Amino acid sequence: MRPEFTSPSSSSSSSADRRLNALVRHLATPSMVSQTAVAFSPTSGFHGDSVFSHVVRAPEDPILGVTVAYNKDPSPVKLNLGVGAYRTEEGKPLVLNVVRKAEQMLLNDKSRVKEYLPIVGIAEFNKLSAQLIFGADSPAIRENRVTTVQCLSGTGSLRVGAEFLARHYHQKTIYIPQPTWGNHPKVFTLAGLSVKTYRYYDPTTRGLNFQGLLEDLGSAPSGSIVLLHACAHNPTGVDPTLQQWEQIRQLMRSKALLPFFDSAYQGFASGNLDEDAQSIRMFVTDGGECFVAQSYAKNMGLYGERVGALSVVCTAADVASKVESQLKLVIRPMFSNPPIHGASIVATILKDSNMFNEWTIELKAMADRIISMRKQLFDALRARGTPGDWSHIIKQIGMFTFTGLNSKQVEFMTREYHIYMTSDGRISMAGLSSKTVPHLADAIHAAVTRMT
Amino acid sequence: MAIRRAMSGRIMDRTAVVGARYMSSWWRSVQPAPKDPILGVTEAFLADQSPDKVNVGVGAYRDDNGKPVVLECVREAERRIAGNLNMEYLPMGGSVKMVEETLKLAYGENSELIKEKRIAAVQALSGTGACRLFADFQKRFCPDSQIYIPVPTWANHHNIWRDAQVPQKTYHYYHPESKGLDFAAMIDDIKNAPNGSFFLLHACAHNPTGVDPSEEQWREISHHIKAKGHFAFFDMAYQGFASGDPEKDAKAIRIFLEDGHHIGIAQSYAKNMGLYGQRVGCLSVLCEDEKQAVAVKSQLQQLARPMYSNPPVHGAVIVSTILSDPDLKKQWLKEVKVMADRIIGMRTALRGNLEKLGSPLSWQHITNQIGMFCYSGLTPEQVDRLTNEFHIYMTRNGRISMAGVTTGNVKYLANAIHEVTK
């Protein structure tokens, strides 16, 4: 007879009971235990099955997978034009001088501790981030109608905003541009929104399909959420003009469509922070409401520190306050409170006018280098007589160029020329240098002439 | 008519703002959320002007002067890192080095399971992030499962599994009369739960009660969980902090591993490395074999990508710098022991003071319980009196963060507790 474990009748085990139980356990042989195990639990056992046996391997992330493949390639001429991370002329990652300075200041400040931040993050960081994107003189800020919460870069800001919308907004559909950053659909779907698309990119002109955009937004149900890239559209680099933005704004307001801006490249597009925020500011000046996800990954080079902010512009201060309290309920069960390091660096820089100026200069230098790469690539293709119109390379804005190459051509370029890029033909201009432009131009030329 | 025209004239002035909803908000119906019960305590404490105020609310370590501590090993690691780290994106699964070192802490320095690559592990946003990632993973791959959560537990556990949309049940844990473990009822709940349920276990230093099963009790818990084919998920937020010895604090986990369970673990460096605001942690899931571990890890990454893409680098590099340098690691172990010992000392002092005051109640549980928290047994009304009359701040469930007790305030605290309980 198999000895039973006696549960102690009193609620706290007396030591006698404990000793007895320990004895009993030693007496119960493995075979006796496994008999019980087999009888009750088909999913456990000694060399047991896992409850997660059925989990299959997920496909590589299409964007991050590019770098994985690049890293495996032994070729000395390989070029990584995948991930949108800035590289210097020497092909190296860049930590801005002003960031290093801020880091040192933080390190030397012995009074700094690593305590938990409040759920919404660093107050100063939030305030300065709102000022950066909306303008220090923004009426929305003056009237306390903005709530800003620190989040994990752009991704985290989008996710927190989307979760809030899924819980509190009456419309659960978000319209995203076709195409958009590969991670957008999943962010919104996992947050509980359903995703539809609106026409954006026109492959024939390699520019904006403005008519299609207006039509699709025009036929969206009233109140729908609309994702807008504030500037430097990813992956196409195609941005509306200011006039087009104004038309978009009017249409959206007339249909009560809710704007959700993704601002990942402020300062990186034109080289000017205010200019790159124009689209967003239009939507705030008109007194309406919007969501803004801000990232410091690229424009401050803080990629891995995951620094960002979600702002919600409301029509009244008390509303903004209530919204903030609900945002906290989204954040607490996700990560409790945001990471301190990167946001501290940002706050240090933004609040010091000298450091802020230094930053704008370094930012402009990065943006200018990218603009120069565009020119060089365009010239190189023209010099080679590569068939086709390549003017989109200099017309498109920001870190990426949507080359218009198809996936077969991309595959060819990877195979023959060791050029790594996403299969949609997007190249990160930030990964180019004067030295490597000729190689890329050769590759494009070959792909276009030999593969159609 | 004239009035309407005048009004519409004003509105027409704002033709530039076609269609703007400047009169009403979409969010008018949003209710103000209740304050977080734990973090709200610190807010209230900060607002209090009294010179006698004591904060024994949130579980963040304080030294004997009541000051937050940055460990020396952390300062040294930061000195080494500063100026040298580029801030490139980590992979979605985080810092490989940090994760490797972290697994050793939980599974054992020379764990065969690590050598066999059977553990799917990713860097996570501290303990919260690790639990949430697991909850999302559980929802996606075992959609019909439910999670059993101890009563009581860290309040945020409920929020995490709720937001992951995993149905939750509770199991008996704390026994108020003895201020110890309700072991019989806990075992009953394990036996009565449907086969293949998921059980959330605190690996050591249970939060908020400080009541941990004994080693023998853990063995029985393991046996019964196994018999029912349940999944054991460990939240280990206090490794090293409970006894002062990280190996000892991992005992429960090691018992389950010996018994062949395929467990999951959420690990946090918030307390034991004092990295709170850096949000450094790790989620691991033990699998049948390497192939499955690769699959599970890839799926965990799929859940992280639409949440935050990849985890923050700074805190992770601090951890891997410390743990991969034998001298720094030794220093860390020393500093953890100092923190744990101070807390154990304060437990003794608080109990001693209460007994000296002639309290009619038993305060044995103060020294029986382990880790950062003491479940005092105070009622919400008594807690309110402590706050209102004595400026002592704690959560209303009577949980005292022993880390906030110092030689400077322990007498005052004992006095106040005696006053409201005599």
UniProtKB/TrEMBL annotation, chain A:
<dbReference type="Pfam" id="PF00155">
    <property type="entry name" value="Aminotran_1_2"/>
</dbReference>
<dbReference type="GO" id="GO:0004069">
    <property type="term" value="F:L-aspartate:2-oxoglutarate aminotransferase activity"/>
</dbReference>
<comment type="similarity">
    <text>Belongs to the class-I pyridoxal-phosphate-dependent aminotransferase family.</text>
</comment>
<dbReference type="InterPro" id="IPR015424">
    <property type="entry name" value="PyrdxlP-dep_Trfase"/>
</dbReference>
<dbReference type="InterPro" id="IPR015422">
    <property type="entry name" value="PyrdxlP-dep_Trfase_small"/>
</dbReference>
<dbReference type="InterPro" id="IPR015421">
    <property type="entry name" value="PyrdxlP-dep_Trfase_major"/>
</dbReference>
<protein>
    <recommendedName>
        <fullName>Aspartate aminotransferase</fullName>
        <ecNumber>2.6.1.1</ecNumber>
    </recommendedName>
</protein>
<dbReference type="InterPro" id="IPR004838">
    <property type="entry name" value="NHTrfase_class1_PyrdxlP-BS"/>
</dbReference>
<keyword id="KW-0032">Aminotransferase</keyword>
<keyword id="KW-0808">Transferase</keyword>
<dbReference type="GO" id="GO:0030170">
    <property type="term" value="F:pyridoxal phosphate binding"/>
</dbReference>
<feature type="domain" description="Aminotransferase class I/classII large">
    <location>
        <begin position="78"/>
        <end position="444"/>
    </location>
</feature>
<dbReference type="GO" id="GO:0006520">
    <property type="term" value="P:amino acid metabolic process"/>
</dbReference>
<comment type="subunit">
    <text>Homodimer.</text>
</comment>
<dbReference type="InterPro" id="IPR000796">
    <property type="entry name" value="Asp_trans"/>
</dbReference>
<dbReference type="InterPro" id="IPR004839">
    <property type="entry name" value="Aminotransferase_I/II_large"/>
</dbReference>
<keyword id="KW-0663">Pyridoxal phosphate</keyword>
<dbReference type="GO" id="GO:0005739">
    <property type="term" value="C:mitochondrion"/>
</dbReference>
From TrEMBL, chain B:
<keyword id="KW-0663">Pyridoxal phosphate</keyword>
<protein>
    <recommendedName>
        <fullName>Aspartate aminotransferase</fullName>
        <ecNumber>2.6.1.1</ecNumber>
    </recommendedName>
</protein>
<dbReference type="InterPro" id="IPR004838">
    <property type="entry name" value="NHTrfase_class1_PyrdxlP-BS"/>
</dbReference>
<dbReference type="InterPro" id="IPR015422">
    <property type="entry name" value="PyrdxlP-dep_Trfase_small"/>
</dbReference>
<comment type="similarity">
    <text>Belongs to the class-I pyridoxal-phosphate-dependent aminotransferase family.</text>
</comment>
<dbReference type="GO" id="GO:0005739">
    <property type="term" value="C:mitochondrion"/>
</dbReference>
<dbReference type="InterPro" id="IPR000796">
    <property type="entry name" value="Asp_trans"/>
</dbReference>
<dbReference type="GO" id="GO:0004069">
    <property type="term" value="F:L-aspartate:2-oxoglutarate aminotransferase activity"/>
</dbReference>
<keyword id="KW-0808">Transferase</keyword>
<dbReference type="Pfam" id="PF00155">
    <property type="entry name" value="Aminotran_1_2"/>
</dbReference>
<dbReference type="InterPro" id="IPR004839">
    <property type="entry name" value="Aminotransferase_I/II_large"/>
</dbReference>
<dbReference type="InterPro" id="IPR015421">
    <property type="entry name" value="PyrdxlP-dep_Trfase_major"/>
</dbReference>
<comment type="function">
    <text>Amino acid aminotransferase important for the metabolism of amino acids and Krebs-cycle related organic acids. No activity with D-Asp or D-Ala as amino donors. In plants, it is involved in nitrogen metabolism and in aspects of carbon and energy metabolism.</text>
</comment>
<dbReference type="GO" id="GO:0006520">
    <property type="term" value="P:amino acid metabolic process"/>
</dbReference>
<keyword id="KW-0032">Aminotransferase</keyword>
<comment type="subunit">
    <text>Homodimer.</text>
</comment>
<dbReference type="GO" id="GO:0030170">
    <property type="term" value="F:pyridoxal phosphate binding"/>
</dbReference>
<feature type="domain" description="Aminotransferase class I/classII large">
    <location>
        <begin position="52"/>
        <end position="417"/>
    </location>
</feature>
<dbReference type="InterPro" id="IPR015424">
    <property type="entry name" value="PyrdxlP-dep_Trfase"/>
</dbReference>
